[in-house]
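Structure in, sequence out. Go:
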């Protein structure tokens, strides 16, 4: 009875709360507007995390999660970041992108495909078909990916190396440390204070992988993941858990013989450092894997365009400035491509336009920027690219100035992106 009660509490503490962008949580037991209720301890821990990161220079309040009060109740609203936040007490917050026409499961799969296009991510070459993701939340999928990499590593063989050891031993081996031997053994000649190198698997790389396995075993609420992590930990019995992540990362040795460790160690950096795309701090949080959707969308569109034949493409091009003075008010469009002798300039915007909004919700500053791009690049086509909103399907949106500059607002349907990308050109 006591065991089943303990399991029940563990499952409850490992609960995952899922919201989409611009959805949120209300503190307590009652929903407020589109904000679902969140138990007070988890809400307060999340609030502490938000306040800690709002103090960071890299992340503004508008970028991460916003904290406000509605009808006298504190509310946390998701903004421009998606991903997962695993709290130290077990609860996980999952934030999914808002994708028109798709449910949560589709949103997870689309997000994972989009994340693969980012630079320097450990799951770049991972095939989603390798995962049975239907009942899994985002954080558990990330854990499953790491477990798969660690399993591959174990099958190829763990690294062993010589580790320097200093110890007061009963038997002489290696080299005598004379000052320490006099200090410890002056009145006890039965021991020798020695230095030697010991061959074994207790190296920095394996210590980092072991501590990551232990962390995720504690945080995971998925039975399959916990079983995989337990099995993997059994291969690291002779390895100590890392107690100084940065020191052990600095001691990791690269080279041809260590190439099979690269992806597993990349995952360790993600989970131990929070290196998803931006580093986040917070004493209440075990792991924060959060990604800015604007950057993901830009990277995803560029990757899809590169796959088309006959395309020459640059991202974040700095070839032009607004004025003749070098580097004065430099222009930096997201994408500049050439096809069949025509230059196309694009900026991607992760924002849902609306048929009922003035100018469909297109920002005036964005239009000024696109006008400048069209002028300076002599572009045959200038495009603002948005995710497809449901109420603008089949709508053509374009603007033309009296001096020959035209700007088109186009859409990518993330449920069928390839057809949308081909239609752009």
């Amino acid at each position: 009875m006591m065991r089943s009660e303990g399991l029940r509490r563990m499952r409850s503490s490992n609960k995952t709360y899922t919201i989409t962008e611009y959805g949120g949580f209300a503190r307590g037991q009652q929903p407020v507007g589109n904000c679902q209720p969140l138990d007070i301890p988890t809400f307060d821990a999340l609030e502490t995390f938000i306040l800690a990161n709002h103090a960071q220079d890299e992340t503004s309040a508008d970028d991460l999660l916003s904290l406000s009060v509605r009808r006298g109740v504190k509310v946390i609203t998701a903004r421009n970041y998606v991903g997962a936040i695993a709290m130290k007490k077990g609860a996980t917050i999952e934030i999914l992108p808002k994708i028109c026409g798709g449910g949560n499961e589709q949103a997870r799969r689309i997000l994972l495909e989009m994340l693969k296009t980012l630079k320097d991510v450990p799951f770049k070459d991972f095939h989603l078909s390798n995962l049975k993701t239907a009942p899994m939340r985002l954080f558990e999928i990330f854990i499953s990916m790491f477990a798969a990499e660690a399993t591959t590593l174990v099958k190829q063989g763990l690294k062993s190396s010589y580790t320097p050891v200093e110890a007061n031993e009963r038997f002489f081996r290696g080299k005598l440390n004379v000052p320490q031997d006099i200090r410890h053994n002056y009145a006890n000649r039965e021991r020798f204070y020695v230095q030697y190198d010991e061959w074994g698997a207790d190296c920095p790389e394996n210590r980092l992988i072991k501590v990551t396995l232990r962390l995720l075993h504690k945080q995971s609420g998925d039975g399959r993941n916990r079983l995989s992590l337990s099995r993997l930990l059994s291969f690291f019995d002779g390895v100590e858990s890392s107690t100084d992540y940065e020191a052990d990362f600095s001691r990791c040795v690269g080279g041809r013989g260590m190439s099979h460790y690269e992806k597993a160690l990349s995952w360790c950096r993600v989970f131990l450092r929070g290196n998803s795309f931006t580093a986040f701090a917070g004493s209440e949080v075990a792991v924060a894997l959060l990604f800015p959707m604007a950057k993901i969308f830009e990277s995803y569109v560029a990757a899809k365009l590169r796959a088309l034949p006959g395309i020459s493409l640059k991202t974040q091009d700095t070839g032009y400035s607004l004025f003749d003075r070098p580097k004065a008010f430099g222009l930096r469009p997201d994408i500049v491509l050439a096809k069949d002798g025509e230059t196309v300039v694009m900026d991607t915007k992760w924002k849902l336009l609306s048929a009922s909004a003035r100018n469909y919700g297109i920002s005036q500053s964005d239009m000024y920027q696109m006008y400048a791009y069209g002028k300076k690049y002599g572009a045959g086509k200038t495009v603002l690219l948005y995710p497809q909103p449901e109420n603008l399907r089949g709508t053509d949106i374009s603007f033309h100035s009296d001096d020959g500059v035209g700007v088109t607002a186009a859409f990518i349907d993330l449920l069928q992106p390839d057809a949308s990308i081909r239609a752009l050109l």
